[in-house]
Design a protein that fits this description.
mainly beta, 4-stranded mixed sheet, 1 helix, about 5% helix, globular
């Protein structure tokens, strides 16, 4: 709907989302989570799942926006569906981004 090739443009301005500029000029996503003790925002990189497969080291701008059918943002471990939960709890506070791609030859 936004006629963009960068997925970062789709999430820009969303509450709790910060875009960070990468060396190659594209953007990565960080979520802001709030520490109950200090009350300050902590920025961390969410887990990324692409078409149901965990994609470590992939940034959203590496995925052409015109191939994406849907994108789900889960800002914390407690809101992330079980099938997309990390195997370890070390990254649980960072949340998850799930991206579903279009079926080749589809719409």
């Amino acid at each position: 709907k936004r006629h963009t090739m960068r997925l970062s443009e789709v999430v820009r301005g969303r509450r709790g989302v910060q875009l960070i500029r990468l060396r190659d000029g594209s953007y990565g996503v960080q979520f802001a989570t709030f520490s109950g003790r200090s009350g300050r925002a902590i920025r961390c990189t969410p887990e990324l799942w692409l078409a149901g497969v965990r994609s470590r080291g992939t940034e959203i701008d590496e995925i052409p926006a015109n191939t994406v059918e849907a994108m789900e943002l889960y800002h914390s471990f407690s809101t992330t569906p079980f099938q997309f939960s990390p195997e370890t709890i070390s990254n649980q506070r960072c949340g998850t981004i799930v991206i579903w791609t279009r079926i080749p030859g589809g719409r």
